Amino acid sequence: MKRVLILGATGSIGSSAIDVVRAHPGDFQIAGVVARSRVAALERIGREFNSPWFAGEDAAERAVRETDADIVLVSMVGISALAPTLAAIDRGIAVALATKEVLVAAGELVMSRATEKGVPVIPVDSEHSAMFQCMQGASPSRIGKLTLTASGGPFYAGPADLSSVTPPMALAHPRWNMGPKVSVDSATMMNKGFEVVEARWLFNVPLTSIGVVIHPESIVHSLLTFVDGSTLAQLAPPDMRVPVQYALSWPDRLPAQRAALDLPSLGALTFLEPDASRFPALALVRDTAEEGGTRMVALSAADEIAVERFLSGDIAFTEIVPLVADVVSATPPRRCDSVDDVYAADAAARSSARAWRGAKGRGGRVAAIRP
Ligand SMILES: NC(=O)c1ccc[n+]([C@@H]2O[C@H](COP(=O)([O-])OP(=O)(O)OC[C@H]3O[C@@H](n4cnc5c(N)ncnc54)[C@H](OP(=O)(O)O)[C@@H]3O)[C@@H](O)[C@H]2O)c1
């Protein structure tokens, strides 16, 4: 029986995890649930599982310290998940990590702390879960290339002009039903850039050995090519309960609650090159990741604000990437050796991103962030 603490229990990933626990009452127990604002829903979950619940902006870290869990599912949104993730690692509790921003902004810090403490960080993102599954039993030195698949999001095939994209259009992902931040990130393909960085830290591989391929059917979740030329892939229906359950049950596997793939009914599977000119976010993330440090923190923070501003109607869809790029280039490049360094770079980038006025004649662009 594993005791699971869920950070972000009312969200999309959190709900998948609750379904998994409900389906396996003999394998999992809820040690506690955490959310920020949907208190009534959180209370209902707490009552159903007879477990404590913690609400509010800073509740997650407290929950990690005050509950007895064997595994913490980190499925909040954004950098607010960094402190609770580190708290879990410091307590020696296994981490099932969905919140990619933690590794995008502070991958080196988090993974070196996890290695030092001997704590596993198990991927939840479907692509990284796929790679992790293909890696079981493999020698890391025999892995040649990692290929992340991407559905391409709602705008891969059109419209030609993305400037008139509205929030409801960006939130309507063709394959996955996800929270608003990751849905918009998928529409800009910033999300796929984040996943490249996430893979870099989770699997300790250079950025140059991680590729991206568009696969609109979202059936192959990622591929691993070994030095002998063999490629392994993981295939499953596009349902987050599959990778969430694997992360919670690893290294074991448990029965699924739904049918596995029926290959003849799928027919053909498609793989295409990503369109770099239509989705400049991919190159922006890669280039920034080469620099790392404060600029990577700034990229993640600026993206959180840009998505918020787009969803509130304040900037256009096509202004998201320019906003983020401007904030990144205004950020003095430095190493981030501590959590305080991360938070300082994060705060500076957020205020810069809030002040960004863009190209619509609404004022200047961002001022340089002071060293
Ligand atoms: N959804 C997916 O399919 C998917 C796939 C791969 C990776 N991910 C990653 O998983 C993370 C979660 O995504 P999601 O789609 O599940 O998001 P979501 O539906 O927006 O849910 C976010 C959850 O986090 C809670 N939360 C937000 N800030 C918090 C804070 N400061 N303290 C405690 N709880 C907080 C929210 O509580 P309230 O509801 O009370 O606001 C909610 O329960 C993201 O980083 C995303 O990139 C998601």
How would you sum up this structure, described in words?
With 371 residues, the protein is an alpha/beta fold. It folds into two domains: 2-124 and 240-260, NAD(P)-binding Rossmann-like Domain (Rossmann fold), CATH 3.40.50.720; 132-228 and 271-355, RNA polymerase sigma factor, region 2, helix turn helix motif (Rna Polymerase Sigma Factor, Chain: A, Orthogonal Bundle), CATH 1.10.1740.10. The protein is built from 15 helices and ten strands. The strands form two sheets. Strands 3-2-1-4-5-6 form a six-stranded parallel beta sheet, sandwiched between helices. Helix 12 (281-291) runs antiparallel to helix 13 (293-311) and helix 13 packs across helix 15 (339-355).
User: CATH class of the largest domain, please?
Assistant: Mainly Alpha
**Overall morphology:** globular
CA-atom Rg in angstroms: 20 Å
According to CATH, what is the topology of the largest domain?
Rna Polymerase Sigma Factor, Chain: A
Total count of domains: 2
Low-confidence parts lasting 5 or more residues at pLDDT below 50?
none
Distance between the termini: 50 Å
Share of helical residues: 40-55%
The sequence of SSEs as H and E is EHEHEHEHEHEHEHHHEEEHHHHHH
Q: What is the CATH superfamily label of the largest domain?
A: RNA polymerase sigma factor, region 2, helix turn helix motif
Q: Name the average pLDDT.
A: 95
Number of strands: 10
Our count of helices gives 15
* Hetero compounds: NADP nicotinamide-adenine-dinucleotide phosphate
Order of strands in the sheet with most strands: 3-2-1-4-5-6
